[in-house]
Amino acid sequence: MQIAELYDTVKTIRRELHQIPEIGFDLPLTSEYVRQKLVSFGYEPISTAETGWVAVLKGKSPEAVAFRADMDALEVTEETGADFASLHPGKMHACGHDGHMALLLGFAKYLKSLPILEKSVVLVFQPAEEGPGGAKWIMDSGILQELQVEKIYGYHLYPSLPEGILGLAKGPLMARNGEFDITLEGVSSHAGQPHFGKDALIAAAQILLSVQNILARD
Questions:
Q1: SS3 for 113?
Q2: What is the pLDDT of residues 144-178, one digit of tens each?
Q3: What Å distances lie between residue 57 and 26, 104, 120, 145, CA to CA?
Q4: DSSP secondary structure string, 21-85?
Q5: Residue 125 Cα distances to 23, 32, 35, 48, 68, angstroms
Q6: Residue 129 contacts residue 97 (beta carbons within 8 Å)
Q7: Catalytic: 130?
Q8: Range with the poorest average pLDDT among 5-9, 43-47, 65-69, 89-93
Q9: How many whole angstroms from its chain centre is CA 98?
Q10: Distance (Å) of CA 38 to CA 4, 34, 123, 150
């Protein structure tokens, strides 16, 4: 099979997934869609992270290389006017995860047309990339270690690159942000006697400006 032959398949998959965006781990329609496609291509999907899937193409060696696509959408109202726009009000594949799944499903179909490979290939469909963190669930499950995954490739649609150009980097790329919470406790007071209070809003504004300057100045 030639890669070009998959164009219409991948395009159709992406548009169908685009119409059924779901959030976090709550991906019943998306999960079932992915499962059915994998089964139709000849895989036996393994459930992971509640609504995610892992599919394995066994090679000559048990050591494996993995490829990963995220599955969840964002709480965004779509206003594109596209004929394949979201059918779920207030939800949209605005970050490209529909494209990521379509690409990995297309790759899954392509792999089945090849002679047996030297190493096994593991395809990971991960929920909850936008939050609360589906990747950790999959890592903690031990399935990647069980399948002897030596390296894993993630990828992301990137409209800033010209069509046909791929951006690559050795090592980690586009890793998720780290998050922490700051809780400020103030003391209320009368507007005419502010010196008796502790204004948490002013303190929060100072923190916000100071944190922003960490990157801008240091």
A1: coil
A2: 999 999 999 988 999 899 998 999 888 777 776 77
A3: 27, 13, 6, 16
A4: --BTTB-HHHHHHHHHHHHHTT---EEETTTEEEEEE--SEEEEEEEEEE---BS-------TT-
A5: 14, 12, 10, 9, 6
A6: yes
A7: yes
A8: 5-9
A9: 9
A10: 20, 6, 10, 23
Look-up of token digits 């942000």? 177
Of the residues 22, 75, 130, 146, only one is catalytic, namely 130
Catalytic, 70? Answer yes
pLDDT of residue 176: 66
Residues pairing with 154 in the sheet: 68
For the chain, which domains are there? 3-154 (3.40.630.10), 180-218 (no CATH)
- Taking the C-alpha atoms of residue 62 and residue 147, their distance in angstroms, rounded to an integer, is 7
Catalytic residue among 32, 63, 70, 75: 70
pLDDT tens per residue, range 174-207? 776 777 899 999 999 999 999 999 999 999 999 9
**DSSP code string of 140-195:** HHTHHHHTTEEEEEE----TTSPTT-----SS--SPPPP--------B---TT-GG
Do you find a cis peptide bond into 194, omega within 30 degrees of 0? no
Average pLDDT over residues 29-54: 98
Contact 111, 57 (CB under 8 A): yes
Q: How far apart are CA 204 and CA 182, in angstroms?
A: 9
